[in-house]
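Retro notes - structure team

What went well: the batch runner handled both jobs without manual restarts.
What didn't: labels got mixed up in the shared folder, which is why I'm recording both outputs here explicitly, each with its sequence directly above its tokens.

Job 1
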Amino acid sequence: MYVEMHDETGQVSKDMQEDIVKLLGTAAQKLNLSSEKEMMITFVDNEKIQEINLYYRDKDAPTDVVSLEYKPEEISFDEDIDFEGFDASELMNEFDSYIGELYISVDKAHEQAEEYGHSFEREMGFLAVHGFLHINGYDHYTPEEEKEMFGLQEEILTAYGLKR
């Protein structure tokens, strides 16, 4: 799996970024995802994540992670447009490899690591896996969904060695 990363804060070391990529590789294997899948992670501060949270979720407050799942089935082409022999299915196959993007607040990760009494690395890993599961269709709106998602999340983090 390919993970593109952008650190707008300058606070996430290359080593930590590499660890997150490996962790998400473990998560992708657990979900039996194709190695062709791609995603993006952008590390931001509380101010930026609040803007993103307001724009995408209509919530005017900073949060720890915003997950934007990519759903290729929601894209359609106007059948009246002549692509002059262009095969749109080829483009859709390429889009199909992109699963989504995460925005992680480094500020919130620091705050929550302290609040929960574990390392910053563990919190960053938790947020990455949590967001990753969201962009792969998992949620926690009901008790059943929460049990499944949080159980899987803990299983992945423990398998990688990021225990509480």
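Job 2
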Amino acid sequence: MDREQLSLIAHREHPIKSPLGDDSVQRLLERSLSPGTRRVLDLGCGTGEWLLRALTTRADVLADGVDISPGALAQAARAAEARGVRDRLRLHQSKAEDFAGAEPFDVVLSVGAAHAFGGLLPTLAAARRHLAPGGRVLVSDGFWQHPPSNEAVEMLGEFDDLATTVDKVVADGWTPIDGHVSTRQELDDYEWSTCGTLATWALEHPDDPDSATVLTTANQRRAEWLHTYRDTFGFLSLVLRRAD
């Protein structure tokens, strides 16, 4: 079973695919979708949950989602059809950095996908290429709440602390107009959900040739979280506008 299939299983009960609760997602969307918002883009949309919630919240919005995963995009299309918003959602199978929209977007989202661009600032550079004047960006990335172990850095990558992360975003020409630091509850809920959903799938499919591998993956991920990065990793979401 490849990483895409594992991810689709792991996030069945947590479709946002980031350590954010429903209330936090709704508030961040409300701050991102200004009254004049018409076009929304998600770079690295996965199964499209952010766009689906935006479309069901605002009947006047059109949305585009970009992702490399055909399975995730197919799931997004089915979900959009079920929610009655398929006619306002365009999906593009492409690397996010290669996508070229015909018009600028009022809001650009990229939540939990900074690794695909090589970090937070490259993600913002990509978002800026698609952003209309006066538009807003909703972006997220990890940070270190406490000094990490070498093992944690090797596992998750290089991050700064919270203050340094925000300082770098501001120095890059962006102005935060809202933000959210995921709570301990949100972080724990996400990890319990994804590991537990993988384990449940494996236990309910004992005859599947991938069952043992999926269960091993669930146990390994849970152990890595509890022993390596639970007490150090944080998750930051920012709503931004350009200072110029």
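One thing worth noting from job 2: Residues 21-183+234-242 form a domain with the Rossmann fold fold (CATH 3.40.50.150).
We'll revisit the folder naming next retro.
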